[in-house]
Amino acid sequence: MTSTFTVHDASGYEKLMGRWSQKLAPLFIDFAGISAGEKILDVGCGTGSLAFALLKAADLKEITAIDYSPVFVAETIRRRKDPRIKVEQGDACALAFDDGAFDRALALLVLHFVTDAGKAVAEMRRVVRPGGVVAASVWDHLGGMPGMRMMADTVAALGEAGRQFRARYCFQPMMMPGEMRATFIEQGLLQVSETQLMIRMDYSNFDDYWSPMAAGEGPFGKFLSSLDAPDRARAEAAVREAYQAGQPDGPRSFANVAWACRGIAP
Protein backbone atom coordinates (compact mmCIF):
# COMPACT_ATOMS: atom_id res chain seq x y z
CA MET A 1 0.00 0.00 0.00
CA THR A 2 1.41 3.39 -0.98
CA SER A 3 -1.07 5.77 0.67
CA THR A 4 -1.59 6.42 4.37
CA PHE A 5 -4.70 8.56 3.84
CA THR A 6 -7.93 7.15 5.25
CA VAL A 7 -11.09 7.59 3.15
CA HIS A 8 -14.44 5.89 3.65
CA ASP A 9 -16.91 8.03 1.74
CA ALA A 10 -16.43 10.57 -1.05
CA SER A 11 -18.95 13.00 0.40
CA GLY A 12 -17.19 12.85 3.77
CA TYR A 13 -13.87 13.58 2.10
CA GLU A 14 -15.41 16.54 0.28
CA LYS A 15 -16.45 18.06 3.59
CA LEU A 16 -13.10 17.28 5.20
CA MET A 17 -10.73 18.35 2.42
CA GLY A 18 -12.17 18.31 -1.11
CA ARG A 19 -13.78 21.74 -0.76
CA TRP A 20 -10.42 23.18 0.28
CA SER A 21 -8.58 21.36 -2.53
CA GLN A 22 -10.88 23.19 -4.95
CA LYS A 23 -9.76 26.53 -3.51
CA LEU A 24 -6.07 25.59 -3.57
CA ALA A 25 -6.04 24.07 -7.08
CA PRO A 26 -6.06 27.35 -9.09
CA LEU A 27 -3.17 28.75 -7.03
CA PHE A 28 -1.21 25.55 -7.55
CA ILE A 29 -1.89 25.59 -11.31
CA ASP A 30 -0.64 29.18 -11.55
CA PHE A 31 2.57 28.13 -9.81
CA ALA A 32 3.06 24.91 -11.77
CA GLY A 33 2.30 26.55 -15.13
CA ILE A 34 0.19 25.15 -17.93
CA SER A 35 -0.12 25.57 -21.71
CA ALA A 36 -2.81 24.72 -24.23
CA GLY A 37 -2.49 21.38 -25.96
CA GLU A 38 -0.58 19.66 -23.16
CA LYS A 39 -0.99 16.17 -21.74
CA ILE A 40 -1.12 16.28 -17.96
CA LEU A 41 -0.82 13.55 -15.35
CA ASP A 42 -2.72 14.22 -12.11
CA VAL A 43 -1.14 11.99 -9.45
CA GLY A 44 -3.47 11.31 -6.53
CA CYS A 45 -6.54 12.93 -8.04
CA GLY A 46 -8.86 12.49 -5.06
CA THR A 47 -12.34 13.53 -6.12
CA GLY A 48 -11.04 15.49 -9.10
CA SER A 49 -10.38 18.99 -7.74
CA LEU A 50 -7.17 19.49 -9.71
CA ALA A 51 -8.28 17.73 -12.90
CA PHE A 52 -11.44 19.78 -13.20
CA ALA A 53 -9.60 23.03 -12.42
CA LEU A 54 -6.99 22.23 -15.08
CA LEU A 55 -9.66 22.09 -17.78
CA LYS A 56 -10.86 25.53 -16.74
CA ALA A 57 -7.32 26.92 -16.86
CA ALA A 58 -6.29 25.90 -20.40
CA ASP A 59 -7.42 24.06 -23.52
CA LEU A 60 -5.58 20.85 -22.74
CA LYS A 61 -5.23 17.82 -24.99
CA GLU A 62 -5.69 15.24 -22.24
CA ILE A 63 -5.63 14.75 -18.47
CA THR A 64 -4.90 11.35 -16.97
CA ALA A 65 -6.00 11.27 -13.35
CA ILE A 66 -4.91 8.41 -11.08
CA ASP A 67 -5.53 7.57 -7.45
CA TYR A 68 -4.72 4.62 -5.20
CA SER A 69 -8.19 4.68 -3.63
CA PRO A 70 -11.04 3.01 -5.55
CA VAL A 71 -13.42 5.34 -3.68
CA PHE A 72 -11.74 8.38 -5.24
CA VAL A 73 -11.49 6.78 -8.69
CA ALA A 74 -15.20 5.97 -8.72
CA GLU A 75 -16.18 9.45 -7.57
CA THR A 76 -13.98 11.24 -10.13
CA ILE A 77 -15.44 9.07 -12.88
CA ARG A 78 -18.93 9.90 -11.64
CA ARG A 79 -18.22 13.64 -11.72
CA ARG A 80 -16.35 13.64 -15.02
CA LYS A 81 -18.12 15.53 -17.82
CA ASP A 82 -15.28 15.95 -20.32
CA PRO A 83 -13.89 12.92 -22.25
CA ARG A 84 -10.41 14.48 -22.18
CA ILE A 85 -10.18 13.35 -18.55
CA LYS A 86 -9.14 9.71 -18.21
CA VAL A 87 -9.38 8.21 -14.72
CA GLU A 88 -7.50 5.12 -13.54
CA GLN A 89 -6.53 3.42 -10.30
CA GLY A 90 -2.78 3.68 -9.91
CA ASP A 91 0.24 3.67 -7.63
CA ALA A 92 2.23 6.91 -7.36
CA CYS A 93 5.39 4.88 -6.73
CA ALA A 94 4.92 2.65 -9.79
CA LEU A 95 3.26 4.72 -12.51
CA ALA A 96 1.97 2.54 -15.35
CA PHE A 97 3.04 4.91 -18.15
CA ASP A 98 5.88 5.11 -20.63
CA ASP A 99 8.88 7.36 -20.12
CA GLY A 100 8.19 10.91 -21.31
CA ALA A 101 4.48 10.31 -21.86
CA PHE A 102 3.33 13.65 -20.37
CA ASP A 103 4.14 17.33 -20.56
CA ARG A 104 3.54 17.81 -16.84
CA ALA A 105 3.02 15.59 -13.80
CA LEU A 106 1.25 17.30 -10.93
CA ALA A 107 0.37 16.16 -7.40
CA LEU A 108 -1.97 18.25 -5.27
CA LEU A 109 -1.96 17.40 -1.54
CA VAL A 110 -0.63 13.89 -2.10
CA LEU A 111 3.08 13.40 -1.38
CA HIS A 112 2.77 13.63 2.42
CA PHE A 113 0.51 10.54 2.30
CA VAL A 114 2.82 8.47 0.10
CA THR A 115 4.99 6.00 1.98
CA ASP A 116 8.01 6.67 -0.30
CA ALA A 117 7.62 10.26 -1.48
CA GLY A 118 11.05 10.28 -3.13
CA LYS A 119 10.09 7.30 -5.29
CA ALA A 120 6.87 9.06 -6.30
CA VAL A 121 8.81 12.15 -7.38
CA ALA A 122 11.22 9.94 -9.34
CA GLU A 123 8.29 8.29 -11.11
CA MET A 124 6.73 11.65 -11.92
CA ARG A 125 10.03 12.78 -13.39
CA ARG A 126 10.30 9.57 -15.44
CA VAL A 127 6.92 9.94 -17.14
CA VAL A 128 7.48 13.61 -18.03
CA ARG A 129 9.20 14.52 -21.30
CA PRO A 130 12.56 16.35 -21.24
CA GLY A 131 11.81 19.99 -20.50
CA GLY A 132 8.46 19.08 -18.94
CA VAL A 133 7.38 20.05 -15.45
CA VAL A 134 6.97 18.12 -12.22
CA ALA A 135 5.12 19.99 -9.47
CA ALA A 136 3.59 19.11 -6.11
CA SER A 137 2.06 20.71 -3.05
CA VAL A 138 1.48 19.53 0.53
CA TRP A 139 -0.11 21.16 3.56
CA ASP A 140 2.23 22.53 6.20
CA HIS A 141 0.79 20.55 9.11
CA LEU A 142 3.44 21.73 11.55
CA GLY A 143 3.23 25.50 11.15
CA GLY A 144 0.68 26.39 8.50
CA MET A 145 -2.69 24.88 9.48
CA PRO A 146 -3.83 26.49 12.74
CA GLY A 147 -7.34 25.03 12.52
CA MET A 148 -6.00 21.47 12.36
CA ARG A 149 -3.06 22.12 14.69
CA MET A 150 -5.65 23.34 17.22
CA MET A 151 -7.15 19.86 17.26
CA ALA A 152 -3.77 18.11 17.34
CA ASP A 153 -2.60 20.17 20.31
CA THR A 154 -5.90 19.69 22.12
CA VAL A 155 -5.92 15.89 21.88
CA ALA A 156 -2.21 15.84 22.76
CA ALA A 157 -3.07 17.57 26.03
CA LEU A 158 -5.52 14.78 26.84
CA GLY A 159 -3.11 11.85 26.85
CA GLU A 160 -0.28 9.84 25.35
CA ALA A 161 -2.28 8.59 22.35
CA GLY A 162 -2.96 12.17 21.36
CA ARG A 163 0.69 13.11 21.77
CA GLN A 164 1.75 10.26 19.53
CA PHE A 165 -0.83 11.25 16.95
CA ARG A 166 0.38 14.87 16.97
CA ALA A 167 3.97 13.77 16.41
CA ARG A 168 2.94 11.70 13.38
CA TYR A 169 0.66 14.38 11.98
CA CYS A 170 3.04 17.32 12.30
CA PHE A 171 6.03 15.53 10.79
CA GLN A 172 4.64 13.75 7.76
CA PRO A 173 6.93 13.61 4.69
CA MET A 174 7.67 16.74 2.64
CA MET A 175 6.41 19.22 5.25
CA MET A 176 9.56 20.80 6.62
CA PRO A 177 10.81 23.97 4.88
CA GLY A 178 13.03 22.97 1.97
CA GLU A 179 12.31 19.26 2.32
CA MET A 180 10.33 18.92 -0.89
CA ARG A 181 12.82 21.10 -2.78
CA ALA A 182 15.69 18.87 -1.61
CA THR A 183 13.79 15.78 -2.76
CA PHE A 184 13.16 17.27 -6.19
CA ILE A 185 16.87 18.06 -6.56
CA GLU A 186 17.87 14.57 -5.33
CA GLN A 187 15.66 13.06 -8.04
CA GLY A 188 17.46 15.01 -10.76
CA LEU A 189 14.98 17.77 -11.48
CA LEU A 190 16.38 21.11 -12.62
CA GLN A 191 15.56 24.76 -11.86
CA VAL A 192 13.74 23.67 -8.72
CA SER A 193 11.76 26.32 -6.87
CA GLU A 194 9.62 26.21 -3.74
CA THR A 195 6.95 28.61 -2.51
CA GLN A 196 3.98 28.89 -0.16
CA LEU A 197 0.32 29.00 -1.18
CA MET A 198 -2.38 30.22 1.20
CA ILE A 199 -6.14 29.82 1.35
CA ARG A 200 -8.67 30.20 4.15
CA MET A 201 -10.82 27.37 5.47
CA ASP A 202 -14.20 28.78 6.49
CA TYR A 203 -16.52 26.74 8.71
CA SER A 204 -20.15 27.59 9.45
CA ASN A 205 -20.03 26.07 12.96
CA PHE A 206 -18.30 23.40 15.03
CA ASP A 207 -20.27 20.56 13.44
CA ASP A 208 -19.12 21.70 9.99
CA TYR A 209 -15.52 21.41 11.24
CA TRP A 210 -15.91 18.23 13.30
CA SER A 211 -18.40 15.93 11.54
CA PRO A 212 -16.17 14.49 8.77
CA MET A 213 -13.48 13.63 11.29
CA ALA A 214 -16.06 12.11 13.62
CA ALA A 215 -17.14 9.94 10.67
CA GLY A 216 -13.60 8.55 10.39
CA GLU A 217 -12.27 10.53 7.43
CA GLY A 218 -8.60 11.46 7.06
CA PRO A 219 -5.80 11.29 9.66
CA PHE A 220 -7.88 12.81 12.46
CA GLY A 221 -10.78 10.50 11.67
CA LYS A 222 -8.49 7.48 11.86
CA PHE A 223 -7.19 8.66 15.24
CA LEU A 224 -10.68 9.29 16.63
CA SER A 225 -11.83 5.86 15.45
CA SER A 226 -9.04 4.28 17.50
CA LEU A 227 -10.43 5.75 20.75
CA ASP A 228 -13.08 4.16 22.92
CA ALA A 229 -16.42 5.96 23.30
CA PRO A 230 -15.60 7.87 26.52
CA ASP A 231 -12.28 9.13 25.12
CA ARG A 232 -13.94 10.14 21.84
CA ALA A 233 -16.54 12.13 23.78
CA ARG A 234 -13.79 13.73 25.87
CA ALA A 235 -11.85 14.67 22.74
CA GLU A 236 -14.94 16.15 21.09
CA ALA A 237 -15.76 18.27 24.13
CA ALA A 238 -12.19 19.58 24.39
CA VAL A 239 -11.88 20.38 20.68
CA ARG A 240 -15.30 22.06 20.72
CA GLU A 241 -14.10 24.30 23.54
CA ALA A 242 -10.93 25.13 21.57
CA TYR A 243 -12.94 25.88 18.41
CA GLN A 244 -15.41 28.14 20.20
CA ALA A 245 -12.69 29.84 22.27
CA GLY A 246 -15.14 31.14 24.84
CA GLN A 247 -17.57 32.54 22.28
CA PRO A 248 -20.90 31.20 20.96
CA ASP A 249 -20.67 28.48 18.33
CA GLY A 250 -20.73 29.76 14.77
CA PRO A 251 -18.50 30.67 11.82
CA ARG A 252 -14.73 30.43 12.12
CA SER A 253 -12.07 31.12 9.48
CA PHE A 254 -8.53 29.71 9.52
CA ALA A 255 -5.61 30.61 7.25
CA ASN A 256 -3.92 27.53 5.77
CA VAL A 257 -0.54 27.33 4.07
CA ALA A 258 0.67 24.70 1.61
CA TRP A 259 4.22 24.20 0.41
CA ALA A 260 4.53 23.99 -3.37
CA CYS A 261 7.51 22.87 -5.43
CA ARG A 262 8.24 22.64 -9.15
CA GLY A 263 11.15 21.44 -11.27
CA ILE A 264 12.08 20.76 -14.88
CA ALA A 265 12.76 17.28 -16.18
CA PRO A 266 16.21 16.99 -17.83
From TrEMBL:
Methyltransferase is among the record's keywords: yes
EC number: 2.1.-.-
Pfam family, one: Methyltransf_11
InterPro entries linked to this entry: Methyltransf_11, SAM-dependent_MTases_sf
GO molecular function, one term: methyltransferase activity
Keyword Cell membrane part of the UniProt annotation: no
Top-level EC class: transferase
Name this polypeptide is given: Class I SAM-dependent methyltransferase
Organism the protein comes from: Mesorhizobium huakuii
Lineage of the organism: Bacteria, Pseudomonadati, Pseudomonadota, Alphaproteobacteria, Hyphomicrobiales
